[in-house]
Design goal:
Elements: E1 3-4, H1 19-29, E2 38-43, E3 49-55, E4 61-66, H2 76-87, E5 91-96, H3 116-129, E6 134-140, H4 142-154, E7 162-168, H5 174-180, H6 187-207, H7 214-217, H8 223-235, H9 240-247, E8 260-263, H10 278-283, E9 287-290, H11 309-318
Parallel strand pairs: 1-9, 4-5, 4-6, 6-7, 7-8, 8-9
Antiparallel strand pairs: 2-3, 3-5
Amino acid sequence: MPIISQSTYSGPPKHLFNGHLETIVPSIFRKIEGLQYLRERILTPDDDFLDLDWSKVGSKKLLVISHGLEGSSDRHYAKGLAKLFNQNGYDVLAWNNRSCGGEMNKAPILYHHGASYDLETVMQHVEKKGSYQEYYLVGISMGGAQTLKYIGERGVDLNSKIKKAAVYSTPCNLPSSAAMLKLEGNAFYKNRFLGKLKKKMLLKGMQYPNMVDLEFLKRVKDFDTFDTHFTAKVHGFKDAKDFYQSVSADNWMAGIQIPTLIINAINDPLLGDACYPVSLAEKHAKIFLEMPKRGGHTGFLVKGQEFTWAEIRFLEFLEGKDY
């Protein structure tokens, strides 16, 4: 308890017959229509900025969405949640990690799985507005890890207006997830993410000359090398191993004090065994772990439905209809 032994996800459409297709097809082809954001830019304590995208319906309840690696508020999974929760009476805020809102950020740092300090900046800004009675935090993939770290590290000191949280396709243990990107069968994901991150690091290096070795950057072909010589260096870690271990969400998850749903599909190609926190959930009264056999990474499509099963499941959980 509270392991959810029987997931309600019945599986994807038949043409998505493995975890890779369940992951890639919605990432490329799924579109959410009829949602318009209103953008707000806020300053961070280190004189940088974050771009916040709002979709309001005049509610006293606010859903805060944290996106995945090299994602943004514009990704299908963020827009799907925003549209569904708007329809059910929630205002929505989808915030963009530094450099992910369409413009390069100003500070030397970028963002990473442990950047809960920026989520804290977002929540402090929202609280100052004084418009909401209840907050609900959700995250997808990397954003899920940021969310778990945020609520776990604050523990009993978490703002009492934050009532529940829900995450899916989340690398609860970052070293385990990073190891999955080394597998030959996952080269597509490695190359896609690494290519995007190298482009951003190139821009950051041009912003701050001599901060990183841009000639060496061109030769980088794996995440261990990139994260050791660039991510770790820019963000103050010793190397890739130190970075992965230091920011991993499971360092803080035992401290979670609000009902929290974690949905990780068994066939997720980007999650290693340690990303399924079974032993913790078995003894933790607030963590609800659901492990559908299917779903891939940020997939969970349902035939003929606009919204994914995970999005609907979030709504059920956060409204207390079904633990």
